[in-house]
Amino acid sequence: EFPKYKAVVRVHKNGELVAETHNLLTNIGKEFIEDKLTNPSNTNVTKYISLSNVATDCSESVTVLANEITTAGLERAEGTITDTGIGNFTGEHTFIATGSINDVQVAGLHWYSSGDDNLFACANFTSVNLEANDELTISYNIYITEA
After folding, report:
1. What angle do CA 116, 63, 49 make, to 5 degrees?
2. Which of 2, 34, 74, 134 would bridge with 69, disulfide CB 3.0–4.6 Å?
3. From CA 85, how far away is CA 24, in angstroms rounded?
4. What is the pLDDT of residues 24-82, one digit of tens each?
């Protein structure tokens, strides 16, 4: 039996659900899974969440969000990982905007806190505009099951 991948991204603005969407597994994300399965001595953990305001940042071939937001409290951040069962986990982080950012619409999940070539997965969601003190919670729910 082959593993099956399913992930859902939920986006909340100030506690209200804005979007729930499918998560696209990138090609390097697939390679990362392969590496983790074949090289258990690795120590990288897929728990860092990034944001972008450019919808084209999310495709199977990307290795980093090219327009990753690096200001206004929306910088790549370490999510809290929770084991939710065999092959299942969640990664979540609440960003608090420190200024105005328009059209936030992409979330990325990484195995490093910075840099390129570590984008495990990404998702487009309904665009949101944020003002100072707005909260944006990104929750990755990963389910890996047998086919």
Report:
1. 75
2. 74
3. 22
4. 888 787 777 777 756 556 667 788 999 999 999 999 999 999 999 999 999 999 998 88
